[in-house]
Amino acid sequence: MHRALELAQKGRYGCSPNPMVGAVVLDADGILVGEGHHAVFGGPHAEVAALEAAGSRSRGGCLYVTLEPCNHHGKTPPCVEAIVAAGIRRVVVALRDPNTEAAGGLEALIERGIEATVLGGPEVEQARRLNRRWLRWAESGRPWVTLKAAVSLDGRIATRSGQSQWITGEAARRRSLELREEHDAILVGVGTVVADDPRLTRRLGLNPSQQWCRIVLDSGLRTPPGAAVVRKSPQQTLLVHTPRAEAEARQGMLDAGVGLLEVPARADGRVDLGVALKRLAARGMAAVLVEGGAEVHGSLVDAGLVDEVVFFVAPTLLGGPAPAAVAGQGVAELSQARRWRFETVQRHGDDVELHALIPEEACSQG
Ligand SMILES: NC(=O)c1ccc[n+]([C@@H]2O[C@H](COP(=O)([O-])OP(=O)(O)OC[C@H]3O[C@@H](n4cnc5c(N)ncnc54)[C@H](OP(=O)(O)O)[C@@H]3O)[C@@H](O)[C@H]2O)c1
Question: What band does 363 get if pLDDT is binned at 50, 70 and 90?
């Protein structure tokens, strides 16, 4: 299972909104004869890839797979059928599939006379951790939300005049571009579009999937028609607005080729984030990377909708009335502040990446 987990990680870029899955086949004598992983969304599942690699040597053998094999016709035929056809005698899985449509694989295998079990032990936690973003989406119907920002040592995301490009150096910026390729969507507030005119593109070519999206929270559709997110690949942009957006503004954006998503407004007239995230999840966005600004960060944190925080901290102090990384309502008492857990701390050139998770998602070793 350890090896199957290693293989699963090869799908880090490309398999979302499917999970990362790895599989190995041992022959009847316990010798490893096939390996596979789920590489790209809609592509062959890990079990099928491993069985194909093993060929006839899988007959009478054992399959270790990090997620319960599927038992339904999705983008590919059910893995249960492939396992039966290959003559596998025993199947061991690390995690059951929470997706009701695809689940039931273990029972189906047992019905077909195959010994099928769920593994206990540390691999189970590793398997959960590896797919925590996908599990959030599959189990709760909302995407995993990662909040990412470049901040100064005093926690500011811009100078007092609103300048933020660039707070961090090249190495940290490259790492933040990698994060874009691990997520299905990049989300910002319209304040950031107006202030910075970001392109919000994937640039590293790590993820072969074209199924990604950039999202702007823009209640009244005030995104400038000349903004980069409108001019460049508009079909990849989705503006999330409320009923208050004027018909003319809607038509202008539709004519420009941009997608629109209307959601209800909160009491203050802004986008209802809970509803917006659920709608994005229903469109297959399992993991969303939020890249600013302070108001959007604040609203998400206030609503308890952030799962992961990645701050790139630069050794500089901006001071004065410069915006902090997280605005919103904030908390009045320290006891109300959620305690996060640091997962990793890494250096990138002169900058430091602080990576924190909500405690229930952090690894138990702390
Ligand atoms: N250092 C970094 O990593 C970084 C990254 C990004 C941005 N920045 C900086 O951040 C600054 C912009 O931040 P900002 O706080 O002014 O703008 P923002 O958070 O990007 O956008 C805020 C706007 O989003 C809209 N919105 C819609 N629904 C919302 C909701 N539920 N909650 C909050 N906002 C909602 C609102 O406008 P409507 O009411 O019109 O919809 C709101 O005014 C700029 O100075 C930029 O340079 C820094």
Answer: low
At position 15, the amino acid (one-letter code) is C
* Mean pLDDT score, 277-296: 96
Residue 359 — very low, low, confident or very high, per pLDDT cuts 50/70/90?
confident
Are 172 and 150 spatial neighbours (Cβ–Cβ below 8 Å)? yes
Instruction: Please tell me the distance from the alpha carbon of residue 286 to that of residue 143, in angstroms, as a whole number.
Output: 5
* CA of 273, closest atom in ligand 1: 31
Closest by Cα among 112, 57, 125, 128 to 86: 57
114-128 pLDDT, tens digit per residue, is 999 999 888 889 999
Six token digits for residue 172: 């940290």
Q: Which two tokens stand for residue 307?
A: 């799962």
Contact predicate 338/329, CB 8 Å? no
Lookup: tokens for 343 = 């997962």
- 3-state SS of 223-266 is CCCCCHHHHCCHHHEEEEECCCCCHHHHHHHHHHCCEEEECCEC
Residue whose CB lies within 8 A of the most ligand 1 atoms, among 214, 296, 306, for a mutation test? 296
The residue assigned the tokens 């997280």 is 326
Note the Cα 68 to chain centre separation in Å.
Answer: 21
> Does pTM top 0.90 for this prediction?
yes
Tell me the angle at which helices 79-86 and 46-54 cross, rounded to the nearest 10 degrees. 20
Tokens representing 183 are 């997520």
* Ligand 1 environment, Cβ below 6 A: 149-150, 157-158, 162, 164, 167, 188-192, 195-196, 217-220, 222, 270-271, 273, 291-296, 299, 323, 327
User: Is 254 a residue whose pLDDT tops 60?
Assistant: yes
